[in-house]
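A common beginner's mistake is to predict each chain separately and then try to dock the pieces by hand. The better habit, illustrated here, is to supply every component at once so that their relative placement is modeled jointly.
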Amino acid sequence: MAVPALRVEALTKRFGATLALDSVDITFERGEVHALVGENGSGKSTLAAILAGSPAIAETGGYEGVIELDGAPVQFCSPSEALAAGVGLVHQELSLIEGMTVAENVTLGREAVRARHPLAPLDRAAMRAITAEVLSRFNASFGPDDRVGDLPMGARQIVEAARQFARTELKVLILDEPSAALSTQEAASLVSVARAAAAAGAAVVFVSHRLDEVIEASDRITVLREGRVVGRLLAEDADPRGLAALMVGRDEDPPIRAERGACDQACLEITDLHVDMPGDPLCGLDVMVRRGEIVGLTGLAGMGRLALVAGLTGLFPARGEVDVDGRMIVPGDAGSALSAGLVLVHEERRGVGLALGESVALNVCWPSAYTAGRFTRWPRLPGRGVLSDRAMIEASEPYLERFDVRCASARQPVGELSGGNQQKVAFSRALMQGPRALIVAEPTRGIDISAKERLLTSLVEVASEGVAVLVVSGEIAELVRVCDRIITLKDGVIADEFSPPFDIIAIEVALASHRRSA
Amino acid sequence: MKGVLSRIPPAQAVVIFFLLAMVVAAVTLGLPVPGLLGDSLVRVAMNGVLVLSLVPMLRAGVGMNYGLPLCVLPGLLGMVLALELRMTGLVGLAVAVIFSVALAVPVGLGYAWLLRRVRSNEEVVGTFAGFSAVYLAAILWGTAPFTNPQMLWPIGGKGLRPQTNLTEWFGHVLDSLGSFTVLGVRVPTGTLLVVLFVAVCLLVYQRTLKGRAAVIAAENERFARVSGTDVERLKSVAVVASTVIAAVGIVLYAHTYGFLQLYDAPLMMAFPAAAAILVGGYMRGTRASASHALLGALLFNAILVFSTPIANELLISELSDITRVLVTNGVILYAMVRGSRREQPERADS
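With all components supplied together, the output reads:
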């Protein structure tokens, strides 16, 4: 029996208390495209990261289990080790140097040279030829001499992929959501190039959300759910609905949607909102959320899901009309949003949502203190008064109790708390501001089950108090539990709207069919 | 006591130990220790406000103010104007300070405008802005139509001298205010009280809403922005505050030194001040505080005052200036290397 190109056995990976992979066994054969599918958090990107030697894996405690490459056990601590052994990864996040040409990016780190000594000049003609050859496989509309910074997002993704496809020596090629930002034609080229690489003898691992594309591109499909393998099937036997059912599982958590009376009064109205976020733009979003209603907004990567909060908080240029109870907000001006009663909980809590070096109490109270001058003494002093730590601690304690935030005291720096507790602090901060409308992005990302339940329940409680809540999330299974309506995005605008009772598989299938227009 | 000792960071412990060793060496060599201690206090009074002037910019994340030579120019011009008006004594000093502050505000606004355009390169740009401004001011010193003959070149009577004696104008007036001698150590009370007053003002401002906002903006600008903070404005206020304090600082420096020094004298002003706050425990990636500035001013100046006669006594004479430059720049280098190591990227989140 032939030795497989790559085999993983009993692979287990933990991030703190979260079990990301639980005793996973998979075999990747030469000459095959092997797809890994699963919902967000199912462990497929973690598996790709382990196979490609991502340093984040070793830094978070490594993994248990065995990885065999050509029958020999291996353990990669860095991407360069993995590459040297013949394992390459095409990541969905671009790592290109925008000021360089396509040829310079594709051959980066292994440039062609004219002689074999350290001071040898670059052989630019050879670099161009290598790049032109790989680009021709993709039918690319740009050339080796184009500057990457001038290319559109889809083309950059092709350059990212071309980097690895130009390495003919690779034994295993992992594609982690490589087609997220691609148009239909670009994705089709990528699939054909991946199949060609497999035909040339490589084992191709294809990680994707798009079920139709997975079925078309791959020979074999492995379905992951909550870190475990829950299905292995041949692509020819698979259909999108069946795959979605395997991904979601049969045991749905019960809804925690409250039975609320009809609420017809519009509270949050977003009209023709455009956000120029590279790779994930919004192109004219229209959403209305009523008082006391929870609306879910979801979509695949690249469809504009992440742009809403980023645009409203001024992290990317935004234009359009946003109003809360008739008060207009300037998109991008966080101050005007706060004063109108629109509170945003950013998905990136460590980078944007929290000041990690500051105390829990200050994080909970800061926007209220700064915008409304609360928790200060002697407000006539220059600097608008002295901030009172005691007042902030007293004000934050009820929220910390309500959300069961586990911290030594409200004085503890928030950076020392676990991810779930940090998210609870970010949520407490939002409620402290007494919002009329609340936009929460990825509220449960990276937190454990009990914290997740607490937060989802709180969303429903907040809505019951008459707040309009818009939840932006890729976690469909959670949206169906709390939302009154779920809206899906395609190309930065609304594609579909779903109402209870939700058919989670229908939503997954609808999402999987979304593809950016050319 | 043990608790207090354990809270002293290793770098400061080494500096304190070094200082104590020098005091012991000075006693052993028969050097006049009370005199040296008195000189140390005088240098703290001279330099204290200049070191404190670094704090607002550091706290707001604008970086070490290597453009200090630019910031002290309004102070120098303020003193020149006070001399031009023939002001003497405490009134003369007060007039110099008032002119300095009035001139420092527009200079600070211009400096803030410049630094806003060079985000993340503020220290390098500040250094060269300082150097350029010193020579630009030299044209002013050489050509402006001042008339006080004691400031002017004796031959020709045009252009300011590089050095003017302040003793008969307002030199040492604050030092001698309430001055007393204890165990042979003469304490320049008035100036030290002004240094303490500036430090207390900074400490209070650190605790205000805007003071905290500046620190938060420095540590996590995106968090500050989404919380409704006008980050640019906060940073500009910090630059103006640093400029104003530096302008006042140079007036106190010249007053205690006893001479007004012009032309290229302020050129290297930033480096001893930066070294002092780094000796005081400030490190890149941490929050600067007025207490770092005060402790640093004390330790750094005491080391300089003690090291010079000891070096002259034990080694070759004329080594003092070499020692001073070596210590100053060595401390900056050490603190920057250590600070950069602290700024290693955080672990990737799962």
